[in-house]
Specification:
Layout lengths: L4 E2 L6 H6 L1 H12 L2 E4 L5 E4 L2 H9 L5 E2 L6 H10 L8 H11 L5 H5 L2 H21 L3 E2 H18 L7 H16 L14 H26 L9 H6 L12 H31 L2 H15 L13 H13 L5 E6 L3 E3 L2 E3 L4 E5 H5 L18 H5 L19 H16 L2 E5 L9 E3 L3 E3 L4 E6 L4 H7 L1
Parallel strand pairs: 1-2, 3-9
Antiparallel strand pairs: 2-3, 4-6, 5-13, 6-9, 7-8, 10-13, 11-12
Helix pairs in contact: 7-8, 7-17, 8-12, 9-10, 10-12, 12-14, 12-17, 13-14, 13-18
The structure holds protoporphyrin IX containing FE.
Amino acid sequence: MTLLAVTPRFHKQFLLARNAVRYCNELHRDFGDFVLARGLLDFYFLNSPDLIGPVLLNKEGTIDRDAEKNKIYERLRNIGRTGLATSGAQHWRSQRRRIAPLFTASAIRGFAETMIATGTEWAERWAVRSQDGEPFDMKTEMNELALDVNTRCLFGAKLRDEQARLQSWFSAMKAYIEGFPYPVLGEWWFPSLLNLHTRSALRGFDRYALGLIKERRAAPLDPDAKDMITRMLSARDPETGRGMDDEQICHEMLTFLIAGFETTSSALLWTFYQLSRAPEVEARMHAELDSVLGDRAMTPDELPRLDYTSRVIDEVMRQTPSAWFMARTALQDIELGGQRISQGSNMLMSIPTLHNNPDVWPDPGRFDPDRFLPEQVAQRSPNAYLPFGRGPHACIGAHFSRQELLVMVAALGRRFRVRRSGPDIDPSDVRPGMSMYPRRSLRVRVERRQATTAGAASRV
Ligand code: HEM
């Protein structure tokens, strides 16, 4: 039985609105792992693997994202519509069956060459940056990079010319999703400027994506297609044999973009930031990159040998995970941690708060990729580390993102160091929107590095 603490009504609600991650950290510090937070909206806050595991796994089918009723998801649903992250239970089940085979580790390997080609082009861009030595904003840079690689893989290379339009549609949708759901003013039917702007961005995206889908349908089907749209055209629900119509594919493409673009950008930003303040970790990673890749062009076959680089990314996503919250609703009365939770109750989990819980992660402020050595992982609960969630709604793009992050960190990290320009930021002072970024802007420079001959030589 886990003790349930109850907060005074409206306890620190101002902080919840301003910085929800800090609010959750303080909730944990002041009240523990299992808290009923009372305010405008009551919810249970869960922060231990024992409580979170059963909620995410939902073996009894009594808990769900309940996307059709949950206020937290309503704004997301107006954008994602019938896509995987926002559709109701029945539709979601058949969509998940249809789409999951496109995102397995082996299916995702087919994107490795596109990812490597993108990383190589960005290394050329960084060569110019390293020569001119001008500081730049890391968030803007990583946003552009993530949009570039995601659109090339998901939509096909042609979209590169459309990035400015995509970026502006995306910004409008993001402003809406992150907006406060005021009564009346915030309703989707209300003709506020924000709503009108968002609807126009949605129309723009739909027109564009539907045009691309039609184009691909008209072309002969290519089983080795390198982009996700073409792969989706032949996806079938294994139980019913039915495929997807154009509108459904369009909703999924937008879902993938929204779910995958800023999360990747934020993970890359935090990785280069952490490397810049941990010289020993950085040196060890460089030695591995030099040893495995030498000075040759990178190929997909080498990726599985980048063990330490992968552990660096794992540790970054522990301390500063890109996706910061998961929410669920009890579909009926349930028991959790020995307490009765009544039907309709909302449950909130903050991934960074769990990943920095000292009862689960000793000395959580220490950046140590070796926490992810297999023998260390084996000693922890599988519910202690959840950057991609767990259970039926776990991130469908997890293999895609891991491969994408590994390629980008290797392609840029083997040639460059990122150095802060200006004062350090506080990594615990974050802005949790759709993804978790530092609150203050991070200005950096890149410096070219030489591969160590010892490292390069040991590869042969
Ligand atoms: C670093 C990158 C990423 C992170 C940290 C991340 C994190 C997550 C997390 C934590 C969830 C679970 C949410 C929950 O349980 O409520 C999730 C779900 C999801 N993610 Fe990701 N994600 C990333 C990239 C991607 C990419 C690249 C795609 C698609 C191409 C994607 C598509 C989705 C979808 C569709 C869902 C909903 C799955 C469902 O409900 O069936 N994500 N993601």
